[in-house]
């Protein structure tokens, strides 16, 4: 079992971000859940990798060659997979992972978790997507998504498919009972749609 963890290449202004990242990664390792992440040794990415490794967990990094050459790659991982492009990085992380989690991060983290969320909506995968809402970091973003849903541009079923939790215990417990929503263009259940697929057990 592995989770793709998206988070910042900077530590951010709030020390709680690093504390939460460290605790989250250690809890994954304790439960035997591997980490798939961007492969860097800096910022919150590095905190996640180091904490999971220190707790005996599996950590797989996926990084484009250009970033490896700039010496941002973590050299102590269980495995570092080097790909050609950012697109290949995201595809490989999605292939390796059984779910997706966003910790506090910047534009790259947003882009990655929203792609995973969109792919879930479209039925490209049936894996859980979640946000670790440290100190309310994701609250403004999720309020914006709620406003989009109220405006009729995000279906409530897909809005609510994302798990929002404050710590690892809550997030993993909710992932364990999570079920995928109907894909965006699926027929309603009373017209023959297959039932929602459960998430892999955590």
Describe the structure.
The protein is an alpha/beta fold and 202 residues long. The chain has a single domain, classed as 3-Layer(aba) Sandwich (Rossmann fold), CATH 3.40.50.450. It contains eight helices and seven strands. The chain has helices spanning 15-30, 43-54, 65-69, 86-96, 107-122, 139-150, 156-159, 168-176, and strands at 2-6, 34-37, 59-64, 79-83, 100-102, 129-132, 163-165. Strands 4-3-2-1-5-6-7 form a seven-stranded parallel beta sheet, with helices on both faces. Helix 2 (43-54) links the parallel strand 2 (34-37) and strand 3 (59-64). Helix 1 (15-30) packs parallel to helix 2. The protein is globular. Residues 189-202 have low confidence and may be disordered.
Chain-wise SSE layout:
Layout (H helix, E strand, L loop, with lengths): L1 E5 L8 H16 L3 E4 L5 H12 L4 E6 H5 L9 E5 L2 H11 L3 E3 L4 H16 L6 E4 L6 H12 L5 H4 L3 E3 L2 H9 L26
Helix pairs in contact: 1-2
Figure out the total of helices: 8
Instruction: Assign an overall shape.
Output: globular
Average residue pLDDT: 91
Order of neighbouring strands in the sheet with most strands: 4-3-2-1-5-6-7
State the domain count: 1
Count the beta strands. Answer: 7
Radius of gyration: 17 Å
**Helices and strands: which structural class?**
alpha/beta
Runs in which pLDDT lies below 50 for 5 or more consecutive residues are 189-202
């Amino acid at each position: 079992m592995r989770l793709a963890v998206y988070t910042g290449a900077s530590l951010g202004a709030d020390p709680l971000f690093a504390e939460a990242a460290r605790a989250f990664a250690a809890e994954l390792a304790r439960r035997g859940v591997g980490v798939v992440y961007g492969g860097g040794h800096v910022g919150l990415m590095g905190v996640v990798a180091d904490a999971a490794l220190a707790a005996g967990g599996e950590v797989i990094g996926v990084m484009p060659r250009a970033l490896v050459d700039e010496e941002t790659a973590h050299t102590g991982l269980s495995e570092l997979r080097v790909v050609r492009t950012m697109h290949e990085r995201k595809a490989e992380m999605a292939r390796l992972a059984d779910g997706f989690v966003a910790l506090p991060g910047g534009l790259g983290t947003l882009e990655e978790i929203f792609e995973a969320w969109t792919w879930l909506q479209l039925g490209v995968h049936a894996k859980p997507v979640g946000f670790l809402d440290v100190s309310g970091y994701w609250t403004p973003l999720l309020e914006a998504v709620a406003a989009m849903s109220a405006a009729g541009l995000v279906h409530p079923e897909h809005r609510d498919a994302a798990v929002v939790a404050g710590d690892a215990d809550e997030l993993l417990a909710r992932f364990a009972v999570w079920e995928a929503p109907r894909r965006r263009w699926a027929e309603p259940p009373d017209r023959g749609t297959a039932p929602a697929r459960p998430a892999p057990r955590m």
